[in-house]
Amino acid sequence: MIDFSKFIQNLHDVLPSIYKLATGFTFFAGIGFAFRSVMLFAEYGKARTLMAHNADIKRPLICMMLAIVLLYWQGVLHDIMMTVLSSDQWVTSYNFGISDNYQKLINYAGNIFQLIGYIGFVRGWILLARIGQQGAQPGAFAKAISHIVGGLFAVNIFTMFKVLNSLVS
User: Fold this and answer.
1) Distance between CA atoms of residues 93 and 155, nearest Å
2) Which of 125, 142, 143, 163 is the most buried (most CB within 10 A)?
């Protein structure tokens, strides 16, 4: 039989490695978007010289913006956290006033939720690349923005607990 609290604790113990993996993927995706934007700019220049009415600069600019955001995501996350929450500190625990075992379990689960929020934050920026493509689905921009905002709130789950606690009490 698998013990849920032991599972959460083991998953919490490997979180630093998972963060490093996710950060590496973010930088790799940023480099990929940088190369893609250069290729799209070359394609735009070629289309612009041949036919002036068929050239679209939206896709290369979006890919360049995404490359910058994904390569400098730590600064972007810091700036957004300062704008939305007036704090750039990642709070890693919260005291709920319950027994120590449950408190530890909830803090571990919250840290795992922060990782999920970080992945959602990065996924939202990657989803923005779809807006520049031809035949993009309607609502792709709203989906990307909701991933970015939801990821930001999930990264700051303990701060959100404090805000909700102060609103309720």
Assistant:
1) 12
2) 125
Residue 118 is assigned to a structural domain of this protein? yes
Cβ neighbours of residue 55 under 8 Å, at least 6 residues apart?
44, 47, 48
Check residue 86 and give left, alpha or beta (phi > 0: left; psi -120 to 50: alpha).
left
pTM: 0.78
Model confidence pLDDT, tens digit, residues 112-143: 888 899 899 889 988 888 876 677 778 888 89
Query: 89-114: b or e for each residue (b if 16 or more CB lie within 10 Å)?
Result: eebeebeeeeeeeeeebbbbbbbbeb
Residues ≥6 apart with Cβ < 8 Å to 46: none
- Asked, for residue 5, whether it belongs to a domain, the answer is no
The pLDDT tens digits of the residues spanning 29-77 come to 999 999 999 998 888 887 777 776 666 788 888 889 999 988 887 787 7
Pair of tokens at residue 119: 């992945």
> Is residue 75 classed exposed, middle or buried when 0-12, 13-18 and 19+ CB atoms within 10 A define those classes?
exposed
Q: Which residues constitute the domain of residue 122? A: 12-164
| Greatest mean pLDDT among 12-16, 31-35, 163-167 | 31-35
Question: Coil, strand or helix: which one is 110?
Answer: helix
